[in-house]
Amino acid sequence: MATLFHYPFCPHSRFIRLVMAEMGLESALVEEKPWERRQEFLIMNPAGTLPVFLEEQGFAVPGPAVIAEYLDETRGLGLDGRRLLPDNPAARVEVRRLMDWFLTKFHEEVSSYLVTEKIYKRFIGVAAGGGPPDMSAIRAARVNVRYHLKYIGFLIARRNWLTGPDLTYADLAAAAHLSCVDYLGDVPWDEDETAKSWYARVKSRPSFRTLLADRVPGMPPAANYADLDF
User: Fold this and answer.
1) Does 142 lie in the same domain as 70?
2) What is the pLDDT of residue 129?
3) Residue 207 belongs to a domain with what CATH number?
4) Within-domain flag for 225
5) Does residue 200 form part of some domain?
6) HEC string of 151-208?
7) 191-210: burial string, b at 16+ Cβ within 10 Å, e else
8) Does residue 187 belong to any structural domain of this protein?
9) In this protein, which residues make up the domain named GST C-terminal (predicted)?
10) Residue 134 lies in a domain
11) Does residue 33 sit in the same domain as residue 93?
């Protein structure tokens, strides 16, 4: 069986967990704390980032976008209607564009700030950069999340899912990152009902159940986090 090295509140890891659940793929889950920089983990992925998908034969695939592409190439053709990357080249470009939007842009502007400042720093020693959260970073993320939410609403007002008629990697990337922010209570859902309705559809899917069960020790989730009807 393959193994996924992940951290429960790493949004990139959550994306791949959703992908695998939607594809009906099973793997062993190994929780990895990236700030510990374990030597064995760095051998698999010198960048020290999550997630890492380890094939049963010992072949390591690092990074969310790389893993998503790899799973499509190695498992996608046998999934019939559950494939998360469309056949049409133009449609594939749009999926990749929006997947990159959330895995890169949203992460850099929103989820990385909030997860690092509110969660990771709780478990990192002060000498290694832990300690109290940087409120200026949190304030910036709270401002930035608003225009990302509006963009989701703009897309969903014209499409059934983010890139078109079917659920794709783009929806799962966006939902994975938003789920971490939602746990912390920093998504202003009342500002865009269209985006809120789309997220409710995604988090109601069976693939989301294990994510909604995740908890940060000593930090309960926002009241609406596991409420499928908000």
Assistant:
1) no
2) 86
3) 1.20.1050.10
4) no
5) yes
6) HHHHHHCCCCCCCCCCCCHHHHHHHHHHHHHHHCCCCCHHHCHHHHHHHHHHHCCHHH
7) ebebbbebbebbbebebbee
8) yes
9) 88-221
10) yes
11) no
Report how many domains make up the chain. 2
Residue span of the structural domain in which 132 resides: 89-213
Tell the residue number behind the tokens 């510990």, with chain if given. 36
Helix/strand/coil (H, E, C) string of the chain? CCEEEECCCCHHHHHHHHHHHHHCCCCEEEECCHHHCCHHHHHHCCCCCCCEEECCCCCEEECHHHHHHHHHHHHHHHCHHHCCCCCCHHHHHHHHHHHHHHHHHHHHHHHHHHHHHHHHHHHCCHHHCCCCCCHHHHHHHHHHHHHHHHHHHHHHCCCCCCCCCCCCHHHHHHHHHHHHHHHCCCCCHHHCHHHHHHHHHHHCCHHHHHHHHCCECCECCCCCCCCCCC
Q: Which residue's structure tokens are 């909604």?
A: 212
Query: Position 61: which residue type?
Result: V
Question: Which of residues 50, 82, 114 is at a domain's end?
Answer: 82
Task: Give the model confidence (pLDDT) of 25-49 as tens digits.
Answer: 999 999 999 999 999 999 999 999 9
| Interval 42-77: pLDDT, tens | 999 999 999 999 999 989 999 999 999 999 999 988
What is the pLDDT, as a whole number, of residue 45? 97
Q: Which residues of the chain have pLDDT under 70?
A: none
> Three-state SS for 112?
helix
94/151 same-domain check: yes
Structure tokens at 82: 């559950």
